[in-house]
Amino acid sequence: MKPPRSYRGSGGERGRQDHHPRTPQGGEARGAGGRGERPHGAKPGAPRFGGKPGGKTPSGGRYGSGNHGEPSHGGSGHGGGPRERAQAPHQPRHGEHTLHARLPARTEEAPRHQREQRDQRGGERSGLWLYGIHAVVAALANPQRRLRRLLLTETAEEAIAVRLPRPWAITAERAEREQLDRLLGRDAVHQGAALHADPLVAPPLAQVLERPGPLVVLDQLADPRNVGAILRSAAALGAAAVIVQDRHAPEETGALAKAASGALETLPLLRAVNIARTLVALKAADVLVVGLDAAAAPLAGPALTGRRIAIVLGAEGEGLRRLTRETCDMLAGIAIQGGAQLDSLNVSAACAIALYELGRR
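^ that's the sequence the OP posted. Answer follows.
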């Protein structure tokens, strides 16, 4: 954050008025060696340094004014008191205090989603911070993940060593919980572990289709925790990949990786520019595209037998968009026993149930 500028009042520079003695006529005697004084023998009210009253200096300011043409405390820029030449911005001398030194630096933390988005930019802040024991262990074990810095508390280092014996691909640095709280935000459940790394590079769709299992397509699902939970369920239930829309889906962040609990490192997360065209490409690869809709018939029947399936889920509240719905081969729902008291499921729960049903066939 840039340091605050000196406060300037309507009559001059108030942040400096206590450090410049006034002349008997009300002006300010500025600088060393008599700067700002009238030439010897000049009459009161005469312009200083040879200018005419109310005139402009070569730099564009008015005589008798402070910075930016503002009048001094001793008078306006059009007569009525002694005048002085426009000065360059004041530089404090050794031992002199200004408003810059008196204002404390701000220490408020930005919201975590802003910090994570800011960390995507270049320079030392490029990459992202992964946190949580499971997410960090999975990233350390992933040879495709480029690691930058590992911060661990003593307790977290012992817990990670149990799950992933040394040697690790990166040397751990000792950190305290307070340090990680400041780095990640107090709302981040980091468990004493934080890993700075580069985002993963997603494989092409053709390569993903070589993997066995169903696919999951998310149509403008924006909550990173829901996307992370779907990754976790999809990895546990044998899905081949999760596909999201490029512009209307969360970036790869620490919150998403924490919700995925390590699945981000093992299950490909692809980004598609156009979901409808991606569904057409899946259909061309002999994949049956099934859109989940609460009002449709339950997910079952002979049409699912012996076919590879892509489950398509829409955003919570809005569901599938019209074009996405029309591109699907069929719509299916999930039978809910709650009746009128429970007419829908969380999107990550619905995805887990649908994948489980497909796995039972």
